[in-house]
Amino acid sequence: MVNLEWYRTFKAIYKTGTLTGAADSLFISQPGVSLHLGSLEAYVGYKLFDRTGRKMIPTERGKVLFNAVSEALSKLEDVEKNFQKSTEKTTPTISVGMCFETFQTTLEQYVSTLDFNLIIDFGEYPEMLDQLDKGILDLIITPKKGTSPNILHEAFSSEQIILVGGKNVDTDGFKEVLKTKDFKEIESWLKQEKWYGTTGDMEHLFQFWLLNFGHKPNFRPNYIVPNLNSIIRCLKGGTGLAVVPDFLCKNEIENGDVKLIWEGEKKLENTLYFGCRKQTMYQNEIDHIKGLFREMMGGIQ
């Protein structure tokens, strides 16, 4: 008989693209993830993923299975989370959605001080907005506003997307190229450098390039790492370029470990919003988390 956890693990691998990512999202070991996948593949009788390096690429049969079980699993997970909340009356449990890097840079250091239970969810913004509307999440941190009449959006800070590099990058040479105002020459200089990107989407790089050069970048980063915070740590080695939100590397720039290379001819800025439902029984807990974010990230100028 098939184990439901095998399907849950299969979905996590499909969504994250790696065994490590699935293990992190499920809070289980990587060998456990491999065991679940192997058991499910043995049960259904065919491969569900092709292993390319560290990436797990779903086979055609894997895609068919995912489409068949994804909605049912999501409904079961919704029931699980809502039931958990309804039965925990003594200590409130607050579910908060945000990107992984934002959590690491802000809320992570305060988790041990909270006097209520906390569940952090890392996901795509449209998915988080939908889960907030359904009552699965209580608060989200997002640069994108939804359209549901049940959700309140409150602007609380902003981020600027900037080009940064290691401390050994030749910024004097780049400044000379900038003086020419020849954007083909500027683009050519940048493309000669080594670049960092993430295993997820590279929306920041695409938006920055489109705004300043009129098209998406026609190159791929040389080094692909798990997340934006990994990029900052790699840049501290001295070389390479990346496009990242300014708040993630503020301290490194001030300390001289990372250089601000260029803000762009046109600045790319995002407003950050708190998203929460109009009706909630956890207003005090939500206000406390909001206060922590305002303290760490500052307010709208």
From TrEMBL:
Q: Where are the transmembrane segments?
A: none
A Pfam family reported for this protein in Swiss-Prot or TrEMBL: LysR_substrate
Organism taxonomic ancestry? Bacteria, Pseudomonadati, Bacteroidota, Flavobacteriia, Flavobacteriales
KW Signal (keyword) present: no
User: Which keywords does the record carry?
Assistant: DNA-binding, Transcription, Transcription regulation
All residue ranges annotated as the HTH lysR-type domain in the record: 2-59
Matching entries from InterPro entries are given as: LysR_HTH_N, LysR_subst-bd, WH-like_DNA-bd_sf, WH_DNA-bd_sf
Q: What's this protein's family per the entry?
A: Belongs to the LysR transcriptional regulatory family.
- What is the protein named? LysR family transcriptional regulator
